[in-house]
Amino acid sequence: MIVLKNVLIPHGEQWVKRDVIIQKGVYGEISESIDERPLKDARIIQGEERYLLPAFIDPHVHVREPGFDYKEDWITCSRAALKGGASSIFDMPNNKIPVVNYPGVKEKSEIASKKSYVNFGLYAALTDKNIDELKSTGMQGAVCGIKIYLARTTGNITVTSGSALLNVFNQPKPVLVHTGGIEGLKKVLFFYEKASKHFYVVPVLYVCHVSTGEEVALLRKWKKKLPSILAEATPHHLFLNKEEYTGLKGVLPPLSTKKDVEALWEGVKDGTIDLLGTDHAPHTVEEKRGRVPPSGFPGLETAFPLLLNAFKDRRLSLNSLLRMTSGNAGKLFKMGIGDGVVKGGEADCTLVEEGEFCAGEDGYETKCGWSPFHGWNLGFKPVLTVVNGFISYENGKFYRNPVKNLCR
Ligand code: NCD
Ligand code: ZN
Ligand code: ZN
Ligand code: ZN
Description:
2 domains, eight-stranded parallel β-sheet
């Protein structure tokens, strides 16, 4: 049992000071004052008015193992997650050997089960030829979603077949798409609309890394027609722009103009943008400095603090913050977290301290060892992260506890 004393928890648009009990993985009593003295064996944590929030669920991570584990592996990646206040990560299939069939998912799931410090979910990629495999019972029970690459990116698994793009919507798992830009977005919307006329039910369409005003405007319109569309924004597209950024270069989609960034924030405000996905895509510093740098930025250690900072600056409401970091992803993947810090809810959470905390000042957990936000004052820092009711991270120390494969 864990008792958190005097923590600030979200309550509507306010923070309220409470004592919170965590027991058997869920929140127990939450009240203004809990007498902890009779609670034997309880771990008492003095919250000292730090913030207790539902942990970040990151739906878009490139863990890299198996295949590219010199860039990142399940241990380093999941530790980066914990340090960033995340309790669950969902891993993309564009490995050295892309995950496109059951043996591929199974292999990865075995590695992750052994190594990950956080709950995990896996995606498989659509190819021009594997739709039957993706619809099979084995696959449906093993993945959290299906990823479509409509344009070339790290790993070469671009889909061109119209029949594959239609039939991927004739199965229930969420379909995530790397559009490659506005043309790709129009293309997938075309097939999604066609599918919603053809098939009795269609899955959620999850648009990854929305980055321009044009995409935001198009999605705003389409979401009125087809409400089962979800739009993701990454921390680097929300907080960096191509006019000012001077760090290690290269990410897909490319960083946008300040004007696009403003449009993206409008989308966050009016709910066109539903969730934050880091697109944590580690590559080594040597690779990034090389002649043909691979695209991708790491993001797990900085994303949640950055968004908290934006909340503090009134760029988004407390409710939007929670929807963006756990609410919508929790709903999408049918997880028991996401309703906030409430009695009976799954107690994946993080305790966050406010102060001057600079990105990278205490190093990085990610194996790639850098951040596009290096040196930024993040303003907030997770000091404790609870996964399935266990303390898995506390003040720079990591503890291995049982984790869940969220695909089942
Ligand atoms: C990602 C990667 O490196 O795997 N790179 C990136 O620039 N975002 C792939 C992707 O999400 O497109
Ligand atoms: Zn109290
Ligand atoms: Zn992508
Ligand atoms: Zn990605």
